[in-house]
Amino acid sequence: MILAVAEDEATHWRYAIYAARCLRTLIRRDSPVSPDHLHYFLEKVRDNHPSLRYYAQRALMKTARYIKLRTFARSATDLVLEKNNNPLKCKVDVPVPSHKFTADFLEGFRQPIDPKTAPHKPTYCEKLTTGWVAWSSTLTMYLPPYPTKSSLKPWETDSEDAITEVRNFAADDEWWKDVSVHYSSETHSESVSSDNISTVKSIVQLLEGESFEALQTIVEELVEDPDQNKQRGAAEFLAGLVIGAKHWPADSQDRLWKWAMPVIQKAFSQRIKTDTLPIWTSFLEYVFYNRDPRRHQTLVDYILREFEATDYNGESSLVAVKALSFLRAFYEDEGRKFVPWADDIVRRVWPEIHSDHDEVRAYISEMLTFTNKIKWEPKPSIPSAEVFVRECRTTPVDIDIMGMRGSYHKDRVQELVKHFPTWRAERLPGARAFQSNYDRVGTTVCRWLYQSVHDTNAISAYDYIVPLLPELFRFTEAVLDVIFDTIQNSPSWKVRLQAMPLVQVFYFRQVPLISEAKVTEILEVLCKCLDDEVVEVREMAATTLSGVLRLSSRRSILTLKNRFLRLLNRSHLPERKDPAYNAAIRQRHAAILGICALVDSYPYTVERWMPELLTNVLAEHTYDPVPISTTVQKCASNFKKTHQDTWHEDSKRFTEDQLTALSTLLTGSSYYA
């Protein structure tokens, strides 16, 4: 009845979605799905309504999963617990554990395997969940597939009708074209869809090579189109095909890869743009996730070959970023299985640490962090749980049994310590400073160390940071120079406005490391900004100056007070029609802003020089033209607000005449008084 309602064209789409959800729920693990039931879902996979497609794809995945479960179930208990007894999956006894065994096992991931000639014995390891601290007694591994015979077929006989239904749809080119239209439709997604990939994978696993030719045509057509959405559709079909072929016969896999690699190489070499790079990167992430790298040996070889051959200082940063992005997708999803390549990868990228492209240096910093992490190994005499626990209990505390100290990059850090003084001496002046090796390497090192201290092996960064501390302290001045250049030379007043608060934040954080000369330069730059052409920038400069002065010496306060008073005394306002009127207003406003910054820098005390500034200087300019008068009124309002609670003590700093003048400044004078 539910199926009849769902298939009825008169059913409203909301009820159709509810019916699809009910039908999906009725798929049982202990009973095969009927052909009509599955036919409905296969039709809805190409439906125009996205929600119906979503539930149909989920139902198709669920059906395929339960077919495999029933085929390999050894008892009803396996069905209840959803225990999948894959015939190629087996438990292997771990020999007497040793560090040599660990090293040899990891090195094995780099040794190519020919599936057609490999002996039918445990070979592949998809998930490496043991062997870091200690080895367990057994290890889950997989047998390679047979050369020509299917390793999984035949499926259970009760599901033969349902599989025939899937076969009929998969043989229909029009059905695949309709599905591809939806997969390659315009969306805002910058990565492949896991549901789409899993749907294709489920069909490919059930039918094996029977669906290959139809998918070949679809993928080739989509790859030819450079449009971002078409590339995403091609990546989803190709990922589902490659992942689903995991247990195909070796000859079928060989035929698949002979076709797939030219298609992948074409996509990677001719179809990669800034909008398609994330798509193909996510394709690799799905392909390598929980996979032994030897299953995709030709793809691994291609990625490493491109990584080695790429020029990381070429005119186009996209070429370099592409190679590094694909490599990152490989090593992040392989984890510790990437250990055999770690030394070669670091050796290749280390000379590029001062690359011309900032994106390249960002990738290099991530690689340094990742390789340091996967090279971290505990150091019990024997990698077994018993020995590890015993040695943790008996060894002295100064023995680093967990191997947490940073040693992998120690020689490279010493190389940096040696070269930084030379790079600092060669640093280009002014706006070209960012082109210097000193700045480029410095930012790369800071990224690397920042990522390291926020990772699980943060303690290893200690041995890298300590030798670099003198240079890290010197980086502060270089950062300030960049901020100063932006504030003073940016043509956009909005950029100048947004950059101004960075000075205050940086000053608060780094004040013990900033030299006296640099503090003077900070104050000088902010004082110059008080005379900016844009009012908003001038006001932000005053706010920033006030914050900086709160942590500055009193000598600086007095020097600036005299400077602003001299500037104010020199400012004379001509007639409004005078061409120099605007410049004179700006000059006086700069002086008033500076004086207000001095007052605001002491929000909870009254200094000896403050009563004079409030009553004899600011009060005289209460009725000056805007924005001078508004600045004075705002300063007076802030003073009243911050000193209200302690006014009984602060008022003693003022004379009677000054209190009268201050009252007028704070409350204003009335015409009727």
UniProtKB/TrEMBL annotation:
Determine if Transcription is one of this entry's keywords: no
Query: Which parts of the sequence belong to the Proteasome activator complex subunit 4-like HEAT repeat-like domain?
Result: 123-327
Which Gene3D superfamilies is this protein grouped with? Leucine-rich Repeat Variant
GO function terms (MF aspect): peptidase activator activity; proteasome binding
Residue spans crossing the bilayer: none
Positions of the Proteasome activator complex subunit 4 C-terminal domain: 586-673
First-listed, main subcellular location of the protein, grouped into a coarse class: nucleus
GO CC annotations on file: cytosol; nuclear speck
Location(s) in or outside the cell: Nucleus speckle
- Keyword terms: Repeat
Biological process (GO) annotations held by this record are: proteasomal ubiquitin-independent protein catabolic process
Instruction: Name the PANTHER family for this protein.
Output: PROTEASOME ACTIVATOR COMPLEX SUBUNIT 4
Q: What is this protein called?
A: Uncharacterized protein
